[in-house]
Structure formats: structure tokens, C-alpha cells
Design brief:
The chain is of the alpha/beta class. The chain is built from twelve helices and eleven strands. The strands form two sheets. The protein has a six-stranded mixed beta sheet with strand order 8-7-9-6-10-11. A five-stranded mixed beta sheet has the order 3-2-1-4-5. Helix 1 runs parallel beside helix 3, helix 7 packs parallel to helix 8 and helix 9 crosses helix 10.
């Protein structure tokens, strides 16, 4: 079986740190939850960090063997390993550097690095503990059919270039529309999914109408999907009304929650929550007080995207949403680091178009277009 995308779950531990150590690693099909391959082995005497990196390397090797050419999301409960592999933390310990270099060499370009709580990494943790306890690890499934009799899969670069030529199947075209201006937008205040739920200003109403006219001239729109927040609903109603469609509400397209920061300006947050803001800017795994991390928002946005691709294959869909989900979609298509979202600017009521192809890859067609 050929996999387009897989999840690597890895863990490692040492009883004594340093002490008897082992790792556990598995590769999972996110579409079915099926474990494609797994491994767990002892390492002799080692530290927790060495065991965790060893588990990561084992998981990436399994992915290369059982899911060649697939894109990868790595999930681990080791914040150190995830942050170092994502390039957000420096690797200072000499024992870690060769392991990190080996892991980087195995990770395909665009690999996503996701920290998860320990409870969500239980399968890999169990493999490591079973190895330490001498419990036999179930044999891995048989590898995919011999490559000699199978046509070679095109590389990611070759598939990504397919948008330049003829298509066998039409792509699903998602046109992301950021909502129009609100009073919070004009004052550059944090405006997430908690706290107040501001509606459009007069300027925002005019922007929504301009976007609706632009999309009507473009034509070919099959559906309008919107976040449930007031500002997106109002924008979507204007667009859908002009196109003669009914908007569909999807809660997963809601803006990231900024928790206690909602309604405050950046300067106010910097003054009142300096340490929390510094940590938030340092890592996308960190959530504002009472809010949601960008990594969590990214997982939710991916689920929303996958739902649209399943419901509207080959169709053109306008998605009325917020600045963070749109930037996360652009980041994923460009296979850029998560920190790249801090370097994108999206004006109110602008359009960003992405085409997704049947093999799961995509191309960015436009970004931040003012109607």
C-alpha cells in the first residue's frame, strides 16, 4: 500500500538517567489509525534524551522503509527533541548533536514537528517499556511489495510541479477569505475565539461587499464555508447572498483562541504578561494564558481542510475564516517552519487561493489579494 502522509510516534526512557534505556517507535496511518510498523529496543546504559532521539531515528527509519515518499508529522512528548528538531532551540549537549544530525538526514523536507502530552504518546511509551521489561515486541508487518515490480513514485518536487501541466483530475480549489475589518482589527487588538465576539465595522461591511463582487465576477464557486464567529458569519452572508448560495458553518475554521489576551493590544499584553508573551513568541507549542497554541490550532485547521477535501473533491469552495488558519494553510503548502506564520501579513477581506490535488499535494495560487 502507498501512503501519502504518515505520523511517526516515538519515545524513549532511561531507568536511572543514565541507566538501562530503551526506545519505542511506530508509524501510523492518520486516515485509519492503523499502525503500519513498530519497533522497540534496549540501548544499554543511556540518558533519557539519548533514548528519545534513538526512538525518533528508529521511527524515521521505519517511515522510510514502509512509507517511502510520504510526508511526515512527528509526534513526541519530549519538548526538547521537538523544539531542537524544529530549529527553535539550539543543540548544546555533545551527545545530542550526532543524533540530531542523523535524524535531520532521515526527515523529509517539510516534516512537521509536534509536541504532544505524554498521554497522547502512550503507544510509543509502551513499546519502550516493553523492551526494557523484556516483553516481545510484535513483529512489524511485511514491507510494501518489492519496488522492482512497482513503478517508481514521482518525487515530492515532481508532484508539486504538476500544477504547471495537464491534470488527470481537477484539483479542489479552496479560496480563503479573511473576514472584513472589525473595531478590534482597526485597533490591532488580539481577537480570537474567546472573549468578545465583535462584528464588522462599516469599513468591514464595504470590504465584504467588494469581496463578494470580486468572487461573483470570478464565477465557478460551488460552496461557501464559514467560521461560526460573528465577523466571519457577516462576511460569509454577504458573499453567499451575492453568489446565490447558502453558507455552511464549520466550527473548526474558528480563529485561534488567545485566552486572556483577547481584546488587548500587543503593547498591553507585553506590559501585563511579558514572560508569557516571550515564551509564546519563542515557540508555537506555547499557548497564551487560557488560550490555544498555534500547534493545536494547526491540527484543528488540518482536520477542517481534510473535511473539505473529502466533501468537495474537484470543487471550488470559498472558506471565510481568520488570519491564523489562513497563514497555517499557506505554511503547510510551502512546507515552511511553523515560525514562518509570524512573518506573514494578511489584510482584512483579502483572498488567498490554494489548489489541492488528488495525491494530497498542493500549490499556492495567490496570497493576500485585495478585491
Amino acid at each position: 500500500m502507498t501512503y501519502q502522509h504518515v505520523i511517526v510516534e516515538a519515545d524513549g526512557g532511561s531507568r536511572g538517567n543514565p541507566g538501562p534505556a530503551a526506545y519505542g517507535a511506530l508509524v501510523r496511518d492518520p486516515a485509519t489509525g492503523e499502525v503500519i510498523a513498530q519497533d522497540g529496543r534496549t540501548l544499554g546504559v543511556a540518558t533519557n534524551n539519548v533514548a528519545e532521539y534513538s526512538g525518533l531515528i528508529a521511527g524515521l527509519e521505519l517511515a522510510a522503509e514502509y512509507a517511502p515518499n510520504a510526508s511526515i508529522e512527528v509526534r513526541m512528548d519530549s519538548k526538547l527533541v521537538i523544539e531542537q528538531m524544529a530549529g527553535r532551540w539550539k543543540i548544546k549537549h555533545p551527545d545530542m548533536k550526532p543524533l540530531a544530525v542523523k535524524a535531520q538526514g532521515l526527515a523529509p523536507f517539510g516534516t512537521e514537528w509536534t509536541w504532544v502530552p505524554r498521554a497522547q504518546n502512550a503507544a510509543a511509551d509502551a513499546l519502550a517499556n516493553n523492551a526494557l521489561d523484556g516483553v516481545p515486541i510484535p513483529l512489524k508487518p511485511e514491507p510494501v511489495a518489492a519496488k522492482a515490480t512497482t513503478p517508481k513514485e514521482p518525487s515530492d518536487q515532481q508532484k508539486a510541479m504538476q500544477g504547471w501541466g495537464a491534470q488527470i483530475e481537477p484539483p479542489t480549489q479552496l479560496i480563503f477569505l479573511r473576514h472584513g475589518e472589525t473595531p478590534y482589527t482597526a485597533e490591532k487588538r488580539f481577537s480570537g475565539s474567546t472573549g468578545e465576539n465583535p462584528g464588522l465595522s462599516e469599513t468591514g461591511d464595504a470590504q465584504a461587499l467588494a469581496a463578494a463582487e470580486f468572487l461573483a465576477r470570478r464565477g465557478g464557486i460551488d460552496a461557501v464555508v464559514t467560521s461560526p464567529l460573528l465577523r466571519t458569519r457577516q462576511t460569509a452572508e454577504t458573499v453567499a447572498g451575492r453568489l446565490g448560495l447558502e453558507e455552511v458553518v464549520d466550527d473548526n475554521w474558528v480563529e485561534c483562541s488567545f485566552g486572556d489576551w483577547d481584546g488587548h493590544t500587543f503593547a498591553e499584553v507585553q506590559q501585563k504578561w511579558p514572560d508569557q508573551l516571550a515564551a509564546w513568541l519563542e515557540s508555537t507549542t506555547v499557548a497564551p494564558p487560557g488560550g490555544e497554541s498555534f500547534d493545536t490550532c494547526a491540527r484543528r485547521a488540518r482536520a477542517a481542510r481534510d473535511g473539505l477535501l473529502a466533501r468537495y473533491p474537484g470543487k471550488t469552495v470559498v472558506v471565510v475564516t481568520h488570519v491564523t488558519p489562513i497563514k497555517l494553510m499557506v505554511r503547510s503548502v510551502l512546507q515552511a517552519p511553523m515560525a514562518s506564520i509570524f512573518r506573514m501579513e494578511l489584510r482584512p477581506a483579502t483572498l488567498t487561493e490554494i489548489h489541492w490535488y488528488a495525491d494530497g499535494l498542493a500549490s499556492l495560487r495567490s496570497f493576500n489579494v485585495v478585491p
